[in-house]
Amino acid sequence: MADTFTIHLKIWRQAGPDQPGKLVDYTLDNVNEHMSFLEMLDVLNEQLVAEGKEPVEFDYDCREGICGSCNLMINGQAHGPKALTCTCQLHMRNYSDGDTIVVEPFRARAFPVIKDLVVDRSALDRIIQAGGYISVKTGSAPEANSIPVDKAVSDKAFDYATCIGCGACVAACPNSSASLFTGAKLAHLNRFPQGEPERRKRTVAMVEQMDAEGFGDCSNFAECEAVCPVGISISAIAEMRRDYMKALVAGEEA
Amino acid sequence: MPSLLKALQSQVGRKILSSITGIGLIIFLIGHLAGNLTLFGEANAFNAYTFNLESLGWILYIIEFVLVLGFILHAYVGISIWWRRRKNRPEGYEKYESKGGPSHMTWSSKSMIFTGIVLLVFLVIHLDSFKFADTEMTTLNGEQVRDLKALVMEKFQTPLYAFGYTFVMILLGLHLRHGFWSAFTSLTMRHNKLSGIVYTIGVVFAILLAIGFIFIPLYIYFTGGQGALISY
Ligand code: HEM
Ligand code: FES
Prior knowledge:
The structure holds two protein chains of two kinds. By secondary structure, chain A is of the alpha+beta class. Chain A has two domains: about 5-115, Ubiquitin-like (UB roll); about 120-250, Orthogonal Bundle (Fumarate Reductase Iron-sulfur Protein, Chain B, domain 2). Chain A is built from eight helices and seven strands. Chain A has helices at about 35-50, 120-130, 150-160, 170, 180-190, 200-210, 225, 235-250; strands spanning about 5-15, 20-30, 75, 75-80, 100-105, 115, 120. A five-stranded mixed sheet of chain A has the order 2-1-5-3-4. Chain A has a two-stranded antiparallel sheet with strand order 6-7. The termini of chain A are far apart. The model of chain A has no long low-confidence stretch (mean pLDDT about 95). By secondary structure, chain B is mostly helical. Chain B has one domain (about 1-90, about 110-225). Chain B has nine helices and two strands. Chain B has a two-stranded antiparallel ribbon. In chain B, helix 8 packs antiparallel against helix 9. At the A-B interface, strand 4, helix 6, helix 7 and helix 8 of A face helix 1, helix 2, helix 4 and helix 8 of B. Bound molecules: protoporphyrin IX containing FE and FE2/S2 (inorganic) cluster (FES). FE2/S2 (inorganic) cluster binds near residues 61 and 68 of chain A.
């Protein structure tokens, strides 16, 4: 049997979107080092339900680091202290007996709080809708090798395609900028021959949507790269800037 | 080209403006420092340099116009980024910490707006105390010229000027510690090994530039203007 230990939590509780919120103290005595952070919160919620109290709302889906649903600011760091890790992959063995952990939602004007730790990240979806796709005829599956793609290009595109859209980049950025997210989507799609025809239009549309959603400017803090659970490089932002300026010098309207 | 104008107002374009003006200001500062160092040349070198500069006439006005425009644009973009930063996260974090690693969250990058605003205020005082100040006249090669050297010598023997100037130049160094690398990154430099080298070059450059500017007031102050490096 693994040892259990005690953790003190300060969790942001907020009843609804426009309600005032505050940090509430909780103590859990039976934390096991093999628990994930979310399982630890499950245990807390069971305890709260047993006490007849309202459980803490938090977001998740896959719990295996691929969907990008989990999103917590843990002791002031998006997804907690470990690099290349999302909240659901963080384990309690990273903490020791008696630690205090502050848990807050991802904060940004573009990410309004829905309840407790759950925020509305649909602004990211709207950036995708503005151009984060390639237009192809659906129907019968196309021949896979009709458009050859260089291995190096497709590998690089895949690096950027690993973005799970969790929004940690926005949460950790002092400016609440979505540049890493938007840059990753653009660096992924603009790289492919299939993405080429809509390259300029896509770039302009997605950058303008990002502005319109109320995400901030990029000050090159590169904190986004540090918190990104899949390690997207801010080189994506460089590519976005390059494509955007090229598109507009060429006179592309959104 | 209306679309280019629009582009410059987007957040991508704003950073391009900020970086180009920032680099322009850096180039200006290198020239400025080189000019200042003529104080340590032969007796008349500094006054001859300033006289020649002022004799450029309309060319100087064009250079000054571009400089003022660049400075204002740079400060405008910087201040508006900071303004939006506050607006775009109305409710701040109770606790916030950098995750380190590839992050460039440093003392310098976090204080760009502070060091920038100090530089803005400093510039006004600086122009008032030197460029637009009343000066004695002196004769140089039979011509009447402003004795700016005497003015510099006098001002930097007062502690407020010598140490105030030194303090601001340290802040300039901090601004450039992040700014140098940041400008290239804004101009689409990728984040890789080369970018690490650019960062190091930026740090060394920021330190050298700051030392260059600081050396003059401190030397004058501590030698009472009588140091061996300055000839009369
Ligand atoms: C001597 C004059 C100055 C020099 C050489 C200088 C240089 C630079 C450089 C090279 C950058 C990086 C550019 C970028 O990546 O966007 C920068 C950024 C910045 N500068 Fe200056 N600067 C000067 C004066 C000022 C002034 C007067 C302000 C007034 C507020 C200011 C505020 C800022 C701010 C806030 C940033 C960061 C922009 C951001 O968050 O992305 N600077 N500066
Ligand atoms: S819950 Fe799916 S990535 Fe964490």
